């Protein structure tokens, strides 16, 4: 009996796999042959989607590009020296968290109560180990606390007081809440409150990397949306929504309207297009960012196991940068 039951189950799984491969939401062409040899390492970073030409003064542009360049350079140094993708993405995100221009760490936006509640996540594509924190208010570098959740606990996500206590126990650097005060974010809160609606976010930071051992990793950190409700958690610390990494497919870090990224499980959905439908990274990202998300929802940076980088957004701009072992090194804002 058991053997028949097993055969029956196998037949069902096979039928489902055939169905999945042969029908449903449009077909994806077979993977094209790679046009360039696989990169020995690759790195993409972002400083958030949602920037508009009207909101960015030309003199500010140069400052953002310099901040991105410094972070990209630091990540490249880790990967060039044979460091891990995990170390590279953490290092990049820590630097962007320390830069008051970006909406993460020091420059985080305020919630509706005038408090900075920070979210972050990191994921190791070689083991699917991952760690996140949400709603922390005194941790200088939330991305490093997320890594400790991954490495020192059996959990994935710690929030609020519990996360703060965990940080204290491990001697993680904490700061007075005033550390996160920046005039620009405070003014942004006042004008957003006056308009009586939450948002915008923007300038969330993230990084994805492939290292010389072929391991992928992803990291994302944010203050979330300006004037968000106290306790609101966005997509960045939600594994599979704003952050995901799996060596068999890709590493993803997102920025945009968090609720939409959670609703559509954006990061895992991109990986699923590759895993289940054989889509290339570019096709998978197009399916989700171009097809599932609505105009102005946001964007992603992504890298696959061959070091191919895709950075796609449906907003006017996205602060971003890419580098690889073939000599690519660029930072960009607009299309
Ligand atoms: N995705 C972030 C959030 O919703 C915000 C952003 O990327 O700008 O919390």
Write the layout of secondary structure elements.
Blueprint: H1 2-22, E1 42-49, H2 58-80, H3 85-98, E2 118-124, E3 129-136, H4 142-152, E4 157-159, H5 160-169, H6 183-195, E5 205-210, E6 216-222, E7 243-245, E8 250-256, H7 258-263, H8 266-277, H9 281-292, E9 298-304, E10 309-313, E11 318-324, E12 329-332
The chain binds aspartic acid (ASP).
Describe the structure.
This protein is α+β, with helices and mostly antiparallel strands and 335 residues long. It has one domain (2-17, 44-332): Glutamine Phosphoribosylpyrophosphate, subunit 1, domain 1. It is built from nine helices and twelve strands. The chain has helices at 2-22, 58-80, 85-98, 142-152, 160-169, 183-195, 258-263, 266-277, 281-292; strands at 42-49, 118-124, 129-136, 157-159, 205-210, 216-222, 243-245, 250-256, 298-304, 309-313, 318-324, 329-332. The chain has an eight-stranded mixed β-sheet. A hairpin with a 4-residue loop joins strand 9 (298-304) and strand 10. Helix 3 packs antiparallel against helix 4 and helix 8 crosses helix 9 (281-292). The radius of gyration is 20 Å and the shape is globular. The termini are far apart. Residues 48, 50, 201-202, 204, 222, 224-225, 234-236, 242, 255-256, 258 line the site of aspartic acid.
């Amino acid at each position: 009996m058991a053997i028949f039951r097993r055969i029956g189950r196998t037949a069902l799984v096979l039928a489902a796999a055939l169905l999945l491969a042969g029908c449903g939401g449009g077909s994806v062409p077979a993977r094209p042959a790679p046009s360039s040899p696989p990169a020995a390492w690759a790195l993409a970073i972002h400083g958030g989607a949602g920037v508009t030409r009207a909101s960015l003064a030309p003199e500010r542009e140069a400052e953002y590009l310099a901040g991105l360049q410094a972070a990209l350079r630091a990540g490249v140094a880790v990967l060039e020296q044979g460091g891990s993708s995990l170390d590279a993405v953490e290092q990049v995100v820590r630097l962007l968290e320390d830069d008051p221009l970006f909406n993460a760490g020091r420059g985080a936006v305020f919630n509706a109560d005038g408090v900075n509640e920070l979210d972050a996540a990191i994921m190791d594509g070689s083991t699917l180990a991952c760690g996140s924190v949400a709603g922390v208010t005194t941790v200088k570098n939330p991305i490093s606390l997320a890594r400790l959740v991954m490495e020192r606990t059996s959990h994935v996500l710690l929030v609020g007081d519990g996360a703060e206590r965990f940080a204290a126990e491990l001697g993680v650097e904490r700061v007075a809440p005033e550390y996160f005060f920046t005039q620009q974010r405070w003014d942004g809160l006042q004008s957003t409150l006056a308009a009586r609606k939450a948002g915008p976010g923007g300038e969330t930071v993230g990084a994805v990397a492939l290292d010389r051992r072929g391991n992928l990793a992803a990291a994302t950190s944010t203050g979330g949306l300006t004037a968000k409700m106290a306790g609101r958690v966005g997509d960045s610390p939600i594994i599979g929504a704003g952050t995901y990494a799996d060596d068999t497919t890709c590493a993803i870090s997102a920025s945009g309207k968090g609720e939409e990224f959670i609703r559509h499980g954006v990061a895992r959905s991109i990986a699923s297009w590759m895993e289940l439908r054989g889509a290339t990274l570019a096709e998978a990202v197009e399916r989700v960012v171009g097809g599932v998300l609505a105009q102005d929802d946001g964007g992603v940076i992504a890298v696959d196991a061959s070091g191919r980088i895709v950075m796609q957004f449906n907003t006017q701009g996205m602060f971003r940068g890419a580098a690889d072992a073939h000599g690519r090194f660029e930072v960009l804002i607009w299309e």
